[in-house]
Amino acid sequence: MLIGDVARLSGVSARMLRHYESLGLVRPTGRTDGGYREYSDEDIRRIFHIESLRSLGLSLREVGRALDDPGFTPSGLVEDLIRRTRERIASETELLARLRRIGAAEPARWEDVLQIVALLQALGSKNAGTRQRAALSSVEKVPGAVEALVEAVLNETDPSVAGALRWALAQGGDGAPALLAEGLGSSVAEVRKRAVRSLVEIPGGEATALLRGALTSPDVVVRGYAALELGARGVAEAIPTLIDMIAEETLDVDAADVLSALANDPASADRIATGLVDRLARSTAESSARLRLTQALADIPGAATSHALAELSQDEDRAVALTAAYILGIRGAR
Domain HTH merR-type spans what residues (predicted)? Predict the structure, then answer.
């Protein structure tokens, strides 16, 4: 079969067939009387093999090795192809995300596009200082900055850079709470933690509403950060979670401090005292937990607290009884 016929059959151009020949990948078995290349069935079969291997992403050099080296084993090459393909997909995915962010910003001028690209490149730098400077400068209202900052903060591992990113979002990142809310539902625990830590630094009703929802999160860390911030904002809904945190020794000192501040409201004080007593009743087998809950009553004013302490001063657990009696004595001396 002549080269033109082979090209039509295989879909490989005559020029590429000559290139394969120059590389030694496939040589026509014979020549016609007129000196034209003549390909055998085996030659054509080899051409189809070359094209199949190229479709997997092999270079022509790798194709030649695969076809001609008797000791060649494909497993190592296939693993390398898998790795290279993953890297290419990751690169293309990153490019797609970058283009989407640029499009979402609806840039009106090329200068806006260049600003966004510069910010994205800086936030993606391997240098922590560069990332931190980018976060601090983004408050100058770079178009599309909020989306870029949220993505960056959810993936940032350096504490200083993460702090700068959270600060930048808190300065007026319109739309940031809704984007961070998606991070609260991540399957990755660290991403959920970064999302809630960013939310607690954003003022306003939208962030508060999302933190209220986070009180029911199955993630104890998310619940804890949400409760501490909501308590600091005077939201009484956080009280049950704060009490649980004391019992479970999860940021228990911080939780007790927030409860103390909430107790400045008489209605909240009674609710806190009742909640602590109820939790004490459910923690009979946990001496250390009951002791922490008793200690938390120290800064809760009101008759309900005094009554609870009087009962606890007769508790079977000596540590709890002594602590309650001590607190009662201090309250009586005031």
Answer: 1-69
